[in-house]
Amino acid sequence: MELRKNYFADQRKDDLHEIGQPRPRSDSPGHVTGKTAYFADRNFPGMLHLKMVRSPHHHARIRSIDTSEAEKHPGVVNILTAKDVPHNVYTILILIQIGPEDETVLADGKVRWKGEAVVAVLAETERAAQEAAAKVKVDYEVLPAVFDMEEALKPGAPIVNEYHGQNHYLYDSGECRKVRFGDVEAGFAGADHILEQTYQSSPIEHAPTETTGCIVAPEGNDRFTCYTNTQAMFFTLDNASIILQMPGNKLHFVGGTVGGGFGGKVDVIVEPIAILGAKLTGRPVSFIYSREEEMQISSPRAAEKVVIKDGVMKDGRIVARKVTGYTDAGAYSRHSPYGAQKGAGHYPGPYTIPNVWIDTYCVYTNRTPSSAMRGFGVTIGDFALEVQMDKLARLIGMDPLEFRFVNAYRDGDMKAHRQPTEGAALIECMQEASRAANWPVAEKYMAMSSYAKGA
Amino acid sequence: MAIRRGRGVAAINYPTGMNLGGDPTQALVHSTPTGNFMVTLSSVDLGQGMKQIMAQICAETIGVPTDRVVVDTADTDTGPHCMGTFASRGTHRAGNAVIQAAKEARQVMLEVAAEELEVNASDLETDGQGNILVKGAPQKSISIFDVALSAHFKRGRSISGRGMFLIPRSYPEKETGAMKPSTCYAHACTVAEVEVDDETGEVTVLTVKNVFEIGRALNPKMVEQQLVGGSWMGISHALYETTEPYYPNRDHGGTDFNQYLMPGPGDLAETQIIVLERPSADGPFGAKGPGEMCANPQIPAVANAVFDAVGVRIDTLPITPERILRALKAQAPN
């Protein structure tokens, strides 16, 4: 890594003692010698293991659940169904008043994605829990499922989630989050060229080294200690408190070093049911995802579809940009309504465009619920935007890097969501990239600055 | 049939933090009897080294070496509230809270030192080595070790402080979308160079040159590990990863690392990292959140490089050999 101190030297004092120093990490000796403790390194006497009975169907009504054979399986201590969960229908962002509650801890009457948790089995060993889970009989009536976002949005499509009533999240702004800036149609009308293109992605796994999980120990004082690898301690504690209808002071969450998160450990999934198991059995409970569960059950990055329509002038100026973004939330909201909204605030990218129209939709389908991941709401949008920029440059016969200089935002420029640009540095990054990659651009671009014109 | 070479560029920005509920994080700082400092948080270290960075931020603010600071975090019985470690917010939000808490503790520390030295607290400064000196008369000094002992056993002062980061919650305006979705923005520009085998559709990423602007590199070695790892993740997203290879069809999803494709060490490009620092007005010592954005620009840069190499656009991720071959076939004259 090279630090280029010649950029922005007038805005920075380099006179600090500890900051800016490459101090060795205090935790790295533990990591490389195997001494760092992770939540799963704890082992309590009498600890039970929790395994989930999961839906084999993408969408089905549950006619009945028969746990009688599973209960007789050697080592089984308790079996939990929806009726055992005090506040079974929840949504994690309810803590900051973003509803509706739309997801069940354990399926109640319906399953909406293949892999959804239906019954929790608590047993003396992992193997006993797994074997007993296989003996739980669930009678399903299979329902039509919808997987494609366009199909889901058509009238008459199967309704994925009745708590929403339609297959998209309903914002206060309507069926999508909107950004309106300037007059996009006038911009297109005056443009030399119009280019409309569609971009698509598929779900992506966080792939942390350590899978999602927790171990819960009942304490002597009527409290429960939850050792967890969540990325958000109080967020998880407070949601568990709501789901379990248990005062927060009964809960003690202990984290530590997490073996990789990337956004995959911000949903509240394993902790509430494990605490409930510990409460009902009076014994410590371990609930740790297998690799298969981490890959196919825990939320991935959402698949997205992004449609970008641009109006561009021969001289390189983008004069209008319309973006329609679709986020595939899967069967439940989790963080996706926020992810789609974050996308609306991110478009049209780091460029100053006078006429902008953004619609972002959060769409429900019968697949594993997606949620946050590194670059949430932005990563796939940036892929779409920057491939579009390349296409536009070639359309008008400009160098792709020079084309970005023409449109780059600078301090003081008004963004589409009506915030003035501050602290811009896109131009300088491109200037340095031009040098580092030996990709020459015209001298006038190398002389540009992100500072406001006249500053 | 040939191996064809191409290069592509992408430029991006990325917001720090999230626009939900004010995005709060709190911190507490206190000294031990012998002048070491405890930072108490409930933030989570995901392996990115948050504890180390919080120690350096506290040390810089108090005016002691980093090894005199211990960070206690991720325990809801001891640590005050933190929204969580995500949205590139850890260093920025918790860092700001630690600075505020450390400033309050430092002020008490200087007041105790002032009583011991019989001067005004405003005339004192720290040397960064564990001593408090009278400005302009450095021979008149006291160690922080002695100041902490005095505070604990003689003066009855708690050398401690409270800190919090909170911004007003921004509700997007319904019709226009006017909102303040985040605080400062980090920036990047990446140039990727690839080889594409037009017979097999296989892509080899040769070099990735990344320029990142991150406000301030609080610990250059640690930011390097995050930026390099992010750059690799970007390549992986561009070319390999998905849990649903035939999306929106649900079949054939990988269930382990044999089936879920990721690059191995031999698949990773020669990676160059260049860092620029334009300090943000609201960041701890100017830092912005680099954690997420560093994995984004490689994806379109690789996609654009593939086009440059073989003249087909793959607008669906991941850019698999199958998709490249199908596009080449569709483009070829019959």
Automatic annotation (TrEMBL), chain A:
Signal peptide: none annotated. It comes from the Bacteria. InterPro entries: Ald_Oxase/Xan_DH_a/b, Ald_Oxase/Xan_DH_a/b_sf, Ald_Oxase/xanthine_DH-like, AldOxase/xan_DH_MoCoBD1, AldOxase/xan_DH_Mopterin-bd_sf. Residues 33-144 form the Aldehyde oxidase/xanthine dehydrogenase a/b hammerhead domain. Gene3D superfamilies: Aldehyde oxidase/xanthine dehydrogenase, a/b hammerhead, Aldehyde oxidase/xanthine dehydrogenase, molybdopterin binding domain. Residues 1-28 have a biased composition (Basic and acidic residues). Residues 1-34 are annotated as: Disordered. One of its GO terms (molecular function) is iron ion binding. Keywords: Molybdenum, Oxidoreductase. This is Xanthine dehydrogenase family protein molybdopterin-binding subunit. It comes from Mesorhizobium helmanticense. The lineage of its organism: Bacteria, Pseudomonadati, Pseudomonadota, Alphaproteobacteria, Hyphomicrobiales.
Automatic annotation (TrEMBL), chain B:
InterPro entries: AldOxase/xan_DH_MoCoBD2 (IPR046867), AldOxase/xan_DH_Mopterin-bd_sf (IPR037165), N-heterocyclic_Hydroxylase (IPR052516). It comes from the Bacteria. Coiled coil: none annotated. Gene3D superfamilies: Aldehyde oxidase/xanthine dehydrogenase, molybdopterin binding domain. Pfam families: MoCoBD_2 (PF20256). SUPFAM superfamilies: Molybdenum cofactor-binding domain (SSF56003). Residues 3-267 form the Aldehyde oxidase/xanthine dehydrogenase second molybdopterin binding domain. GO terms for molecular function: oxidoreductase activity. This is Xanthine dehydrogenase family protein molybdopterin-binding subunit. It comes from Mesorhizobium helmanticense.
